[in-house]
Batch of 3 targets.
Target 1
Amino acid sequence: MGERDAFLLDRPLKAAVIGVGYLGRFHAQKYAQMDGVELVGVADLVPARARQVGKELGVSVFGDFSELLSLVDLVSVVTPSATHFSVAKACLLAGVHVLVEKPMTILLEEADVLVALAGQQQRILQVGHIKRFHPAVMRLERSGLLDRPRYIESQRWAPFKNRALDVDVVLDLMIHDVDLILHFVGSPVVDVDAMGTKVVTDHIDIASARLRFQNGCIAQVSASRMARESTRRMRIFQPNALIEIDFMQSFLRIVQRGSGEMVLDGIPVPAIEETRLPIERHDALEVEIQAFCQAVRGNTPPVVSGQDGRDALAVVTMIRQGIAAFLEHTV
Ligand code: NAD
């Protein structure tokens, strides 16, 4: 522990948010409301944006984030994805704990540097894979029902929006499901077959990939930002159950073999038991930020570590390379 850490247990954690656009403003609101945390300030390259959020929450405003690093214990980095590496690196070098939004970086080598730096500096590096904190996902984990998934399919389809158009749909949306699936399967990806195409932007707008894991599990993931309506769903097939997670309706449906038989059209068939687990709704961003603060305070590993973010990025990089090869060979 460094000098700055000696006080962590008996004073509020000092926090700041770097980048207060669409999502960063919500990060700042959560810190401002949280017990045991003092939001010291917000930073944004666009002065009007920083002023607006600073005024809303009654905190100091910075144009250059490097000016606030000596004042805080931790930061959220919520700047555009291409800047995550340089901003998060500067924060870690200054001895500040970092919650960096997803994707943690664009390049795998950059993610490696951040993971190593967090280790050297003994600082928490958490990555904003917020779906780990989705009420249905947390409920599934608590249920203990997840048991050796053999096949997983996920769909994350969104209508077109004027956001995150600086990256492709794989880095922006598919990475959420890749992180979850890696977490659920707990085995490395050994093979990727991917396809995708640009539709309206200069980047891939729809994509589909088949992932094969070392333990034999297969996952089929698809993501689109060209959908008419939002669909965010995952189905997990395992030897004893089918588990369905609907991220939008926030429900968990479990289908399992029941005891005995039931009769369908006059014919006896194995009984099927369908359960909808009750989901207590919560604010996933608030729970994510609370978990980050707990990791900082307790000096414990974060729920979504830098290594987890790096692993998701590695698979996403394979998918993006697969799509590039697919496009090259498609006439
Ligand atoms: P945004 O463009 O609305 O906001 C980014 C802000 O960062 C802007 O205000 C910009 O001026 C500021 N900025 C840029 N460079 C800066 C710098 N060097 N210092 C300070 N401020 C700087 O973007 P957004 O939609 O809020 O997305 C931000 C990040 O959050 C992206 O990486 C995105 O992938 C991620 N995100 C994650 C989720 C999620 O579900 N976890 C959802 C939305 C966005």
Note: The chain has a mean pLDDT of 95.
Target 2
Amino acid sequence: MRKSLNITALALAVVCVLGSCSGGQNENKATAVDNTVEPAVAKSEAVDENAIQLEANDQMQFNMQEIKVKAGEEITLVFKHTGKMDKSIMGHNFVLLKKGVDLAAFTQKAALAKDHDYIPADETSNILAHTKVIGGGETTSVKFTVPAQGTYDFLCSFPAHAALMKGKLIAE
Ligand code: CO
């Protein structure tokens, strides 16, 4: 990044030497370059902050059955499908349920909600956080505040997946 800025400055200097540039034009150019640099830096800082990596594969598995996090903290869960299969046949999502929600009943209902990305519209009050459904090679993320201390169920709500694809989020 610094190198390209130096080259830009050098190019401007050459133009000035040739006598076709005023001091005012030079300042405008420098301001424009700064504006393009700043957002890129801010973005990379936001991604690193409190991120948890969760993966799922073509064998219908999460790579973690237990996720330990700090109660009350805001986290970003980055969810990656490491397989190759299309989301229509091996779709995965991450759904975190509130305490006391019947996992089996929720799963049955979610399987029928294909038009809503397997998130039933009348169950949203039972969900603490969820991602969209992704296919092989895709990555998505969800930002949420970890609930109060306790153990919470998470699952993939794609039809028939929760039998294998489920785990516990432990807020400590
Ligand atoms: Co799945």
Note: The longest helix spans residues 23-48.
Target 3
Amino acid sequence: MSDRPLPPSAGVIGWPVAHSKSPLIHRFWLERLRIDGDYGRLPVAPEALGKAIRALPALGLRGVNVTVPHKEAVMAHLDHVDATARAIGAVNTVVVEDGALVGYNSDAPGFAEPLAGLALPGKRALVVGAGGAARAVLAALKGCGIAEVILMNRTPSKAASLLAEMDVAGEAVGLDAAVPDVALVVNASTLGMRGQPPLVLDLSGLDDRAAIYDAVYVPLETSLLAAARTRGLRTIDGLSMLIGQAAVAFEKFYGAPAPREHDAELRELLTR
Ligand code: NAP
């Protein structure tokens, strides 16, 4: 038997998982770096999650990304969950480290990546949504030093609970509230997604230096981003977060930084 090391392999676990863009992204980077590795789709039903996760070391996989509906349930099957993922309450990346299963959440650093150039510490942000994406966004904004978050949601009581649970200063408001004077507006709701109603916000009162960030990536140009562009504001689209979170996972799986100099080509591939 050859003792040549196995090619590095990882994948995405979900149910269903056919829609996931992760294989496209990771395989693109593997190819660009000429790494003889693989990244597959792993459809795993909820009742099989524990067995599938615990089998990762024996299967020789470096790790997996975790998508709907497993992001919360997977935590019970891990040896260790890092502090950010624990604060968010969800794991989207499991890495096999010295035979142990370690959970991370790469959505928060992925979301934060394009904010690096903005002077956000001490400023206020408006975040729309109080679901899974909003949890990662709040953790990231806390890490960026945002002073206060106005959390706008269809169900304001959910927003209020989330602020309290994540220990974020700010207030919860309904979707009919006026847009306050903030440095950053984030859509972390499903509004604006294909098949959903648009997110309509009056951006006219914002400072010219405000930025608008939409986590939705299908379609990439949401009506919120179009309105922000018309108003001359800086915009950040959902692919920035998608690519950013994948890059954090890629480095953990394959031990090499994702080759981000090819982002333009990758964006083209993802929007084809
Ligand atoms: P989720 O957990 O299901 O949360 C959905 C949120 O949208 C809730 O706040 C919900 O309000 C609100 N909502 C749903 N339907 C609505 C409607 N008809 N009117 C008003 N509000 C509505 O979803 P999620 O996982 O957080 O995902 C949210 C968005 O983020 C999706 O578009 C997803 O694609 C995107 N996302 C992007 C990335 C990325 O990498 N770019 C990563 C993760 C997620 P209630 O609380 O009132 O129900």
Note: The longest helix spans residues 238-254.
